[in-house]
Amino acid sequence: xxxxxxxxxxxxxxxxxxxxxxxxxxxxxxxxxxxxxxxxxxxxxxxxxxxxxxxxxxxxxxxxxxxxxxxxxxxxxxxxxxxxxxxxxxxxxxxxxxxxxxxxxxxxxxxxxxxxxxxxxxxxxxxxxxxxxxxxxxxxxxxxxxxxxxxxxxxxxxxxxxxxxxxxxxxxxxxxxxxxxxxxxxxxxxxxxxxxxxxxxxxxxxxxxxxxxxxxxxxxxxxxxxxxxxxxxxxxxxxxxxxxxxxxxxxxxxxxxxxxxxxxxxxxxxxxxxxxxxxxxxxxxxxxxxxxxxxxxxxxxxxxxxxxxxxxxxxxxxxxxxxxxxxxxxxxxxxxxxxxxxxxxxxxxxxxxxxxxxxxxxxxxxxxxxxxxxxxxxxxxxxxxxxxxxxxxxxxxxxxxxxxxxxxxxxxxxxxxxxxx
Length: 421
Description:
The protein contains 12 helices and 16 strands. It is α+β, with helices and mostly antiparallel strands.
């Protein structure tokens, strides 16, 4: 027995050494695997980061209105656009002489400031945190910014060029843009050229309204703050409707809201009331006399105009054009606001009044277009860095969702923001 003990001890030592070597080998293998995984992840993340950093795409914008040019500014500041083309069938002179005035609300102002817009270098005026300027002035300013960006991005502005199927055929297949933005307004036909459905969803804004405009050639064409008046009531007894005061009835909704806007030369008016079935509203919705609305606008303008502009009189009243009666205010927005052209690997998004349009002029319509552009930077980034088609489709789905949210938000709060408050 004493002879066997050393042999058993040696066998035990050999077993323990084998276990230790096995454990050491297992640890080395686990560490090596972990190091390999970490290195792989780091290399992949680095390569993905480099790919995303270097990713650049070409982009085509159809329409050089305020929304189209703002989309162009988003593109050049995104850092993901190598080549940008802006297309419009109108010539530069037709664009820059547009007399209509736009009112940029605080949210749009903040959005544009983030894009580097310097309002101090643009003709216009401020009032209640809104910026008022002429469309032509705004477009000229954005065009000048795009000219300055040509050092970093290949920017080509082709005015007087219509977007057609023939134009597309002339583009070499390998030079097709990765992104096309359609912003050619409510009357444009670029969507039909691209095969995008023209079906619209029409929804009520739960309000009735009427518009009027007057051009006075002897007045100045300078930006002017808007004027708002609220809780207006009209005595229509002269037109066969008995005089009464509906505002004394606590169950009736507030009266009419008036806005006077535009330059002194091109004056516009908007009259709106929340949807209701009061006697006045019914009368003005169904009247056959066009003189009733004209007289309402006539007297409302003289009551609330600025002190420095002349009153409307019988001699100048014939220059006024206005709605014949109150009509239901409706928002129309495209059922399909984005699309993917699979054969050419092109993502298309529709913006501005080409995507959603109101049948009533509030003087603040440009802000609805700006809301849609708030997701443009993210959309460009996701499209430029997309690895495959699924990534592009996800970017388009997010853009469609945002477009629907813009329409839904305006339907509920748009009239309150632009007219009631």
